[in-house]
Amino acid sequence: MWTLGLLAILAGGAAAQDDPAPGDRIEVTFPSGGTIIGKLVAAPQGAPAGSLTLDVTSEYPGIHGTLTVPKPDIVNVRKLRAVVVPKHDPGASDIVPPKTRPVPATPAVDVPETPKPAPADPKAQAEEELKKALEMYAKFPEPDWGPERRNAIKLKQYRGQLPTPLEREFLAGYDLWEKGREAAKKK
């Protein structure tokens, strides 16, 4: 019995250490599956009990301020590590917001240059482009792929994360995908 009681006390103490504290960088997941990242700050007066307030200024360029999220709207909270960039002095470091980090360039794909064919019939070109657009839309069907996914991929790149090969292909052919979506809806 004593062992079980002691174990329960220790487990409770360990769980308390994982709770985010003001100043921690966290990611909040909503029921929709969407996420937002920010630095946890003290809740303003009048905020619902149990709500979290995030300072999103350092995470999203052009957005300045805080966001208070009520507890019922939170599915998961995950602590993130601080972004650390080494200083010029050995052994010292500075915490820098992500907007000042360089975003790694997407690796260039070496495509062999093909000779351009002679100008063809504009109607045939339009049909060929429509066929490619419909193939692109079929490869990346809604609701998994669309404008929201495109924004999520761009945000991923902004954070310095490398999108998957499928995400890169979708992003590169997004205009073609849009044409395919419009054509599919007309049919």
Write the layout of secondary structure elements.
Elements: H1 2-18, E1 25-29, E2 35-41, E3 52-55, E4 66-69, E5 76-80, E6 84-86, E7 93-95, H2 122-139, H3 147-158, H4 165-172, H5 174-186
Antiparallel strand pairs: 1-2, 1-5, 2-3, 3-4, 6-7
Helix pairs in contact: 2-5
Can you describe what's shown?
The protein has 187 residues and is an alpha+beta fold. The chain has helices spanning 2-18, 122-139, 147-158, 165-172, 174-186; strands spanning 25-29, 35-41, 52-55, 66-69, 76-80, 84-86, 93-95. It has five helices and seven strands. Strand 6 (84-86) and strand 7 (93-95) form a beta hairpin. 10% of the residues are buried. The mean pLDDT is 79.
Jot down its keywords.
single chain, alpha+beta, SH3 type barrels, 2 domains, five-stranded antiparallel sheet, two-stranded antiparallel sheet, 5 helices, elongated
Quick structural summary:
This protein has 5 helices and 7 strands, in the order αβββββββαααα. With 187 residues, the chain is of the alpha+beta class.
Report the CATH topology name of the largest domain.
SH3 type barrels
Structural domain count: 2
Nearest-integer average pLDDT: 79
Contiguous low-pLDDT stretches (5 residues minimum) are none
State the secondary-structure class.
alpha+beta
Largest sheet: 5 strands, antiparallel
Q: What is the percent of helical residues? A: 25-40%
Number of strands: 7
How are strands sequenced across the largest beta sheet? 4-3-2-1-5
Write the H/E string, N to C: HEEEEEEEHHHH
What is the oligomeric state here?
single chain
Q: Which architecture name of the largest domain does CATH use?
A: Roll
CATH class assignment of the largest domain: Mainly Beta
As a whole number of angstroms, the C-alpha radius of gyration is 24 Å
Give the count of helical stretches: 5
Strand content bin? 15-25%
